[in-house]
Specification:
Helix content: 40-55%
Shape: globular
Bound molecules: erythose-4-phosphate
Radius of gyration: 19 Å
Structural class: alpha/beta
Number of domains: 1
Order of helices and strands: EHEHHEHEHEHEHHEHEHH
CATH class: Alpha Beta
């Protein structure tokens, strides 16, 4: 299963992309606004930021379009692809306009991810439209008193039963427990914020054990 860092913060990307299991980075307009500290930026500033990410990350970089109409999404997607090349995966909300944009970008050999997915059928329609990834919002589903794991399993069942080639990348992760459940469910990928990756990596008993080993033996030279 592929693990991605869910962040647009350069310092976080620099730190976490060094980890051997981090395959790439996912971003969205909110994460970019947080990274730049402003909610209004120019296209030039947007492009410069994603270019900087592209210089740090060899793997997939998911960048979201910021238009609501298919034409605008396609134009955004082509410009993002022009900056990042084959590393780019264009994230597009799974609306009707979004599916049209996904289809057109697919026709141009530009990879896409249908994001903000909340139902299995939404995911299926996005896959039929040509999406390379489908991205359900796990915690937001949970907050709506639905079962995020059911949605993950529904999408996996659809991919298998319909023999789809798209990948399920689970997003909107808010705690460690969800990560374990999603791994166990067999998702193809998951994107995790930096603070949760940190929590998953560190276990005090591992660190205590290492300290005890180091204390019990000193090898000089
Ligand atoms: C991927 O980058 C998604 O946009 C992100 O995980 C959504 O998380 P949120 O529900 O906290 O906005």
């Amino acid at each position: 299963m592929g693990i991605y860092l869910d962040s647009a913060v350069i310092s976080e990307i620099k730190e976490f992309i060094e980890l051997p299991f981090v395959e790439g980075v996912t971003t969205n307009p909110t994460l970019i606004a947080k990274a730049l500290g402003r909610d209004t930026i120019t296209w030039a500033e947007f492009e410069a930021h994603i270019k900087q990410i592209g210089e740090l990350v060899d793997g997939d970089i998911f960048v979201q379009t910021n238009h609501k109409d298919a034409k605008g999404m396609v134009e955004d997607g082509k410009k993002i692809h022009a900056v990042l090349g084959t590393k780019a995966v264009i994230k597009i909300p799974a609306t009707s306009e979004g599916l049209k944009a996904i289809s057109e970008l697919a026709d141009n050999d530009i990879r896409t991810a249908a994001t903000a997915v909340f139902t299995g059928v939404q995911a299926y329609l996005a896959m039929l439209s040509g999406a390379d990834f489908v991205i359900p919002y796990y915690s937001r589903v949970q907050k709506a008193a639905n079962d995020g794991l059911d949605l993950v399993e529904d999408i996996l069942d659809i991919i298998e039963s319909q023999e789809m080639e798209s990948q399920l990348l689970v997003a909107s992760i808010k705690n460690n427990f969800d990560v374990l459940e999603i791994i166990r469910a067999g998702a193809h990928a998951i994107t995790i914020p930096a603070d949760i990756i940190k929590e998953l990596l560190a276990h005090h008993q591992t660190e205590d054990a290492q300290a005890a080993f180091n204390k019990s033996l000193t090898v000089k030279g």
